[in-house]
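Question (not urgent): is this output format expected?
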Amino acid sequence: MKVGILGGGQLGRMLLQAATNYDVTTYVLENDPECPAAHLCHHFVKGNINDYDAVYNFGKQLDALTIEIEAVNVDALEQLEKEGVKVYPTPSAIRIIKNKILQKQFYADNEIPSSAFHVTQTQSDLSKFTDFFPAVHKLGEGGYDGKGVQVIDSESEIALGFNAPSVLEKKIKIKKELALIVGMNPKGETITFPPAEMIFDQIYNLLDYQLSPAKIHEKQLWKAEAIALKIVNSLKSPGLFAVELFIDENEDVWVNETAPRVHNSGHHSIEANYSSQYDMLWRILLNYPLGNPKAIMPSAIVNIIGAIGFEGDVIYEGLDEVLKMENVFVHLYGKKKTKPGRKMGHVTIISDDYQDLTYKAHKIKNTLKAKA
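Got this back:
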């Protein structure tokens, strides 16, 4: 089979690394010929994944297509689907998920537990909902990696909101944040990976590290799995989906957002699960039997983020020290340039001892730095 990936970032890179286990010819469409995925595919095509003609011409030569980012031209994917190209996830699912307004309405229409919301067209619309604060304002389209999200606690902060179609969500008092990955094959069969818990730095509001399987009550696990499966079944789309969830102070479980692709929260599955999220997506794309998503051993992920105050050709400080650590796996994404906040790689730790995972996660975070 000839399979194409729209986007050539680190998710595409790791998807291509998993492709080497299968008899598949791989294609990547991306503007940057030095992107992380460029040298790992069989055929690289330079082009804009948001351009109709670029996506259509790229896809019409292929048997199947997938994405590594939602910001793609869905009209072109719909036409390719009509012409017999398998597009996983389906264009209709991508269209719903890539727009946060449509995504929230989808949850409401399908009775999926999600926080209350209002739709705003302009920044001035926020003044109609002052009794709804504290709330979170999310740009309808274009937000990514925390960009396009603004907390508004009171009327005095309305000026921080977005002057474009957006969704205003009631702020939830979060106790834990989870991510749960679901796979669905063309037959409608599904698997769920054990959920991962996101541990956030309360000062900087950035992901500190991640633990999987998440340490949650059995009833919360059942609720999280039921919600995630209902989302994917309601989307009626083969593919891999990452469902981000909240557990609030009353122990209730709510969906936050869904990503229609492999996801940062599933990186650990390369070493820590029998079938990784990347392997699972290839099985779905190639119409092979679904793999085993169970954890071999508990794991943690630490993201390697471009250090503040450094921009330019990347130098990895502390890399040798981290590579000497037991049961630690370093993944560098091949990005030549670093800048503050840029995702440069990640480190996976596996251990039966959650205290050991936490200790090593903090040690790696303080040791390994992407500088210039």
